[in-house]
TrEMBL record:
One of its GO terms (biological process) is methionine biosynthetic process. One of its GO terms (molecular function) is metal ion binding. InterPro entries: ARD, RmlC-like_jellyroll, RmlC_Cupin_sf. Signal peptide: none annotated. Its EC number is 1.13.11.54. The keyword Mitochondrion does not apply. It catalyses: 1,2-dihydroxy-5-(methylsulfanyl)pent-1-en-3-one + O2 = 4-methylsulfanyl-2-oxobutanoate + formate + 2 H(+). Its cofactor is Fe(2+). The keyword Iron applies. Keywords: Amino-acid biosynthesis, Cytoplasm, Dioxygenase, Iron, Metal-binding, Methionine biosynthesis, Nickel, Nucleus, Oxidoreductase. This is acireductone dioxygenase (Fe(2+)-requiring). It comes from the Eukaryota. It holds the Pfam family ARD.
Amino acid sequence: MKLDADKYENDPELEKIRKARNYSWMDIITICKDKLPDYEEKMKMFYEEHLHLDDEIRYILDATGYLDVRDKEDRWIRIFREKGDMISLLAGIYHRFMLDEKNCLKTMRLFVGDPVWPAFNRLADHFEAPGQHLEFLAQTA
C-alpha cells in the first residue's frame, strides 16, 4: 500500500486505515547510526531471520530499505521499501530487514493494542503462527 508520507501527521487516509484495522498504538523510529542507541547490535538483530507472534505493520516515512520474507518453498523474496510504503506482515512470517547504502530509515510502527516486541529466530517452528502462515499460502496458491 502506498500513502503520502509527507502528510502522515494529519493524513485522513492513514487515520481511516488505523481505525479500520484497529491500529491503536503507534510510534516512530529512526534507524540511523547517530539516532538509534546500540545501532550496530540492533542492525544485527534486524537482519537475523525471525518471526513475531503478532502482525508487524510498518509505514516508511523517509528513505529506503529492504525486507526479505520466505515464500512457501522457503526461498527468500526481497522487497524494496521506500517512502510512503506501508506493509503488514502476518504473524508467523519469517523475515529480516536491512538498510540500503544510505544506512538510514524513518518508519512508523503500528500495533493492535499494546506493542509486542519479542522476535523468535528461525528455529521457532514450534509456535502455531508459522503453520498458520503456510496454510494461508497453500490456500492462495
